[in-house]
Design goal:
The protein has 837 residues and is of the alpha/beta class. The protein is 33% helix and 21% strand.
């Protein structure tokens, strides 16, 4: 009779591995399921892996049952990854020409990955009760107790057993053991002690009798009163902690705990901030344009899977989004709301909390591994899961229906995704640069929506040129919002001619007189100001006036950036830093000058000109902690900050009601960046930052300092003429055969030896040219030719739209693996970036 247990399982591991691996399934593992974590041995080590397929047959030409290893055990009772996710991971691996193991590493919270190198020790919270240990648990506990820590590899060797991980996992769940990773990333439900009435006392008759007995005695009467207080409190609270009874009652409570009238009980609680709904979505009143957009989307929901809302800054796209979210959530569906920056997610979740309470959650890299793991589990909950069972420890938790996140949120285990919203869809931050895979969160979200048959809504005041062309070609539905939500005039954008200002000596350091006067006027009217400079640090570099020496990074081909607050020179690529120079190391001159300006210098100079103003800076250096975004945005919203200066973070979708002036400094470098998208990017950044002014009660004003006042792009920005910018860009790209008229792939080869790299790059390109011919360009050095002591060479591929992109990438993958399989090439790093931005 055939066993119910499948014979073989294909698994993927969170390692730099290109394929899945097939293992035999022991006959006793009848409960094995796709999506579960299992314990497997790869070479001499033990790892956790995800089951992606179960089957009874293997290909005898490529797989041999006699040499195949067995799965050692199952870690999870239920799958932690869904079948749709597995399909999604495989699509990312294929589309971005990356290893499936690398995709899994990026997708899963680190707390889900177990390896045999893990160090184990006894938990400081263990209560020493070993009465319920089985033989294996007791054996492992006796080996660990008394030791500082011990590795799983050593345990496996000592016990001569391969199922150590399973037993360790059981002891972790019992709060007996902890691992090194657990302190930072191991998932374990958070538990707290609550006070409840003894089960016998909960019976109505028993409770009545107990109250009478306690009340009859003067000494025990306070105990009777405390029970009545408990019954009163419990009506409004699901559970009570010791402090809820009040400081005056703690002595009485302790007595009743000893008598067993009250008992302590451990319950699972959330690590996440509780959110309370305070308003109804019906309170949002859409204007005529918004209502037309909303109605069109609803009426064509099933006919047009993708809609682009091209709305000017401040047009109220978010109000339309909230109305759409409400339609989905009220029907029990899930929504993914994708945003390019963590800062915007923090501000948006506060708006969504008002209408949806605990149904909404933020997911991004600033959260701890334990918090991300909890969000993962609660996103995956079914509607009739344990959260709905009032006897469950997790009954105070509910399934998340609205996920607000940056690009990594696409990897969450959605079960009923019905709407995907991608706001600021043009933003390059959706693209993952490091580590691999180099996926684009926007494009991945589009495919994810397709998997679920979900509606996708893209939104931007400055859409990506490729996206806008798809909309004009009828591939996407195009809807327009041309007016601000509050019917205010759009901010007035003015160009300040810095050539004339310098000539007329009407400058204050890096500021024009026009900008200083405008800031002063706004502060006198108790209004707030944003200053944008797309460069962090104090100055791009320091230079010797005598010999021209510029300090450079020893590991990268870049100059060191001066940071005044830490009095050092820093590399923004590898993290190297060294104390600031007091003299030139080359000629010993003290004539050192600071060249250029960054956000730190702007913050310092503003403080000189406006000593009474409260000034803060918002850039990567000031945003290191988890709550830094929230704290600064909260302070600015509550008007505790007068002037906020920052990099691109402040340009993206932030909504402040008291900002009437935006100043822009150092814009011209954006126009001359050697990239075919340079003008498009500059237009997007300048338009977006301009949109931060005048969003509520006052007409906004934007002053852009520039040395290229007559540049056509600058005129397009002033006139908000997106269509003119688009028409010029699309003509140039068609003439030069750039996207959207072709597909592009960037290949980057890296090695520590420059001569070896150069030779191998030309060899690689020569062989690749036999496949792709004139579609291949390079190799050539990138703008920064060395980072972290690795030299780089770039090769570019242009693939016509008429050719199969998938076939071209498959041939590229095959050739790449053949090239790297040669021993002489094994130390080369080759990175493949599909659809680079």
């Amino acid at each position: 009779m055939k066993s119910d247990c499948p014979s073989y399982a294909d698994v993927i591991l969170s390692l730099h591995l290109p394929y899945s691996y097939t293992y035999k399934v022991p006959t006793n593992l009848t409960n094995i399921k796709v999506g579960q974590r299992v314990v497997v041995q790869l070479r001499s080590r033990i790892y956790s892996a995800i089951v992606v397929n179960l089957h009874d047959d293997i290909n005898p030409a490529t797989e041999h049952s006699s040499t195949m290893k067995y799965i050692l055990d199952i870690i999870d009772d239920n799958p932690i990854v869904t079948p749709k996710q597995i399909k999604f991971f495989k699509w990312i691996s294929d589309y971005y020409v990356s290893y499936i193991g690398d995709v899994l590493t990026v997708a899963l919270p680190a707390s889900f990955r177990l390896k045999s190198e893990t160090m184990v020790t006894v938990s400081p919270y263990f209560n020493s009760d070993i009465s319920d240990f089985d033989e294996k648990e007791l054996q492992i506990f006796n080996l660990i107790v008394g030791k500082d820590k011990i590795s799983l590899e050593d345990l496996k060797t000592t016990l001569e057993a391969k199922d150590v991980l399973t037993t360790i996992n059981k002891l972790i769940k019992k709060d007996v053991l902890i691992t090194d990773e657990e302190l930072y990333s191991r998932y374990r439900p958070k538990k707290e002690l609550f006070i409840t009435l003894n089960e016998e006392c909960s019976n109505q008759e028993n409770l009545k009798s107990l109250l009478q007995d306690l009340d009859a005695n003067k000494r025990t009467r306070p105990q009777s009163q405390l029970i009545l207080k408990y019954l009163s409190l419990i009506k409004n609270n699901t559970r009570l902690k010791k402090n809820d009874f009040g400081q005056d009652n703690l002595s009485t409570l302790n007595t009743m705990l000893k008598k067993g009238i009250f008992v302590r009980q451990s319950y699972e609680v959330s690590r996440l901030k509780s959110r309370v709904k305070t308003s109804d979505v019906d309170s949002i009143v859409l204007n005529t344009q918004q209502q037309e957009v909303f109605d069109t989307i609803i009426n064509t929901w099933n006919d047009t899977p993708i809609t682009l809302i091209h709305g000017v800054t401040g047009s109220g796209k978010t109000e339309v989004y909230i109305k759409l979210i409400d339609k989905v959530v009220s029907g029990g569906g899930q929504v993914l709301f994708l945003l390019p920056e963590i800062a915007i997610t923090m501000q948006l979740i506060n708006r969504l909390e008002k209408y949806f309470g605990d149904k909404a959650v933020v997911y991004n890299s600033k959260f701890s591994m334990l918090e991300r793991a909890e969000i993962w589990h609660r996103t995956m909950m079914s509607d009739n899961s344990e959260a709905d069972n009032d006897t469950s420890e997790a009954h105070n938790k509910q399934k998340f229906q609205i996920i607000v996140g940056s690009r990594s949120a696409v990897f969450l285990p959605f079960t009923d995704l019905q709407l995907v919203i991608i706001d600021e869809e043009h933003d390059t931050s959706f693209k993952q640069t490091e580590p691999v895979p180099h996926y684009n969160g926007r494009d991945c979200a589009l495919y994810l929506a397709k998997l679920f048959g979900a509606k996708t809504v893209l939104g931007s005041a400055t859409p990506n040129v490729e996206t806008y062309k798809l909309a004009l070609d009828g591939k996407y539905q195009l809807l327009e919002l041309t007016k601000q939500y509050f019917d205010l005039p759009l901010p007035r954008i003015e160009l300040v001619d810095m050539k004339a200002a310098i000539k007329d000596k009407s400058t204050y350091g890096i500021f024009s007189k026009d900008l200083i006067d405008a800031i002063d006027a706004e502060l006198n009217n108790n209004r707030q100001v944003l200053i944008f400079q797309n460069r962090r640090g104090y100055a791009p570099h320091i230079e010797c006036n005598v010999c021209g020496y510029i300090p450079k990074c020893p590991s990268c081909d870049v100059s060191l950036v001066f940071h005044k607050d830490t009095a050092d020179l820093q590399c923004h690529y590898c993290g190297y830093h060294t104390p600031a120079l007091s003299a030139c190391p080359q000629c010993e001159s003290h004539a050192l000058k600071i060249v250029g300006s960054g956000t730190q210098k702007i913050e310092e100079e503003l403080a000189l000109y406006f000593p009474k103003a409260k000034i803060k800076r918002m850039d990567l250096d000031s945003m290191r902690s988890k709550d830094a975004y929230t704290d600064i945005l909260s302070d600015f919203s509550s008007k505790k900050i007068d002037i906020l200066c920052g990099t691109q973070i402040i340009t993206k979708g932030l909504d402040f009601d008291n900002v009437s002036l935006v100043g822009v400094i150092g814009t011209d470098t954006m126009l001359h960046y050697p990239d075919f998208r340079a003008f498009e990017r500059a237009f997007q950044i300048l338009t977006q930052v301009s949109g931060r002014a005048g969003r509520r009660n006052n007409e906004g004003r934007v002053l852009i300092q520039t040395f290229e006042r007559d540049n056509m792009l600058m005129q397009d920005v002033v006139q908000r003429n997106y269509r003119h910018m688009y028409d010029i860009q699309i003509k140039e790209r068609q003439m030069m055969n750039f996207p959207p008229f072709c597909r592009m792939i960037k290949l980057t080869l890296q090695h520590r030896d420059k001569e070896f790299l150069t030779a191998k790059s030309f060899e690689y390109a020569s062989r690749l040219r036999t496949i792709f011919g004139s579609r291949l360009f390079g190799p050539q050095e990138p703008i920064i030719a060395r980072i972290k002591n690795y030299y780089a060479m770039e090769i570019w591929l242009k693939i016509e739209k008429s050719l199969s992109y998938a076939s071209a990438k498959q041939r590229l993958r095959q050739y790449n693996e053949e090239f790297l399989s040669l021993r002489v090439n094994s130390q080369l790093r080759i990175s493949i970036d599909v659809d680079p931005v």
